Amino acid sequence: MTKQRYFFTVLILGALTALGPFSIDMYLPGFPAIAKSLHTTTAEVSLSLSSFFVGLAAGQLLYGPLLDKYGRKKPLYFGLSLYLVASVGCFFATSIETLIIIRFVQAIGSCAAGVASMAMVRDIFPLEENAKIFALLILILGASPMLAPTIGGYVTVIWGWHEIFVILGIMAFLILLSVIFFLPESYKPDPNYSLKPAPIINSFLTVIKEPQFYTYALTGAFSFAGLFVYVSASPIVFMEVFKVSAKTYGWIFASLSIGFIGSSQVNNLLLKKYKSEQIIRVSLSIQVVTSLLFVIGSWYNWYGLGGTISMIFIMLCCIGISNPNASALSLAPFEKNAGTASALLGAMQLGLGATATFGIGMLNTHSSVPMSLIMEVSAFIALLILFFGSRQIVNRIEVSSNAAAGMAH
């Protein structure tokens, strides 16, 4: 692959990966305006974010088998087209119930982009480069938390929250054109792949029974849930608790994203000296300790605006380092079922993220305690899974080695 082709392929895959996050981050500054317009509360508006996460999680399981049967591009065409239609529906929404439902449909469309991009990384690039490519995708994805909330804040103030969905629709249309004309098909359609329930379930079971998959997929999913909690709770914490404006919130969100983006690129340097397994173990340990300090400080009101931003920044750095490694290690055992594996991985991440954000919406307390507490619990569970799952992986390797030695004798 030429350098130019390599660059454009990574750029398009990055744009596909960023569509979902852009759909999340851009309308966050508009939460108070949406609440006022639709005669509801900010906490109830956050349920439209939760429904988006649920749609992303459900869509992962839908697109996984489709990507393995029809190739990568046809399901992409369908998903991006559905996203465009749903964006129009969001623009015309007149009640919070309608917005919640249509955001779910929009998520079903957008997750085709995320699942396909992960599977195509496994298709196109050598296995040893996967962690590096995932880190590059995070760099492109980083444009979302840096640009989206800032743009969304200004759009909300100047034109109104409805126009945010116009911009998202235009983005999806441009990505669709790029996929059609510039992105190669990376996987030959498999006419023998059955879409009947039993074979699909068996395919998912084959993936999930692999110790390396369920260990790193669940570890990454629980760790990554902290990011979803932050995204869901941040409009409440910053705009209602600390009383910052929509524009200021956009700049805070963009500044905090530097931790997530920058740490993902530091990961590339760490990979030159350390194994992915080592990096995940250390970053998760730091995430657990920092989250605990955040819980204690939030409970006793130790942190003002600056302290809260600092604690979140450290946790986002930890997530940015561990996530590319967890994704690469969980998908490494698969070649034939890469689409199914990436779909299951995404469903775990988004399903746990949606569950965590529902907690934020239901608690509806005007403090940072719920956010910090849920972030601590998710990080601690991730560390426990990594500890016990690593033992399962070692046992699996030892059993395989013993069996091979026995056959040799």
Automatic annotation (TrEMBL):
SUPFAM superfamilies: MFS general substrate transporter. Residues 9-394 form the Major facilitator superfamily (MFS) profile domain. PROSITE patterns: MFS (PS50850). GO terms for cellular component: plasma membrane. It is a multi-pass membrane protein. CDD domains: MFS_MdfA_MDR_like. GO terms for biological process: xenobiotic detoxification by transmembrane export across the plasma membrane. GO terms for molecular function: sodium:proton antiporter activity; xenobiotic transmembrane transporter activity. Belongs to the major facilitator superfamily. Bcr/CmlA family. This is Multidrug effflux MFS transporter. It comes from Mucilaginibacter corticis.
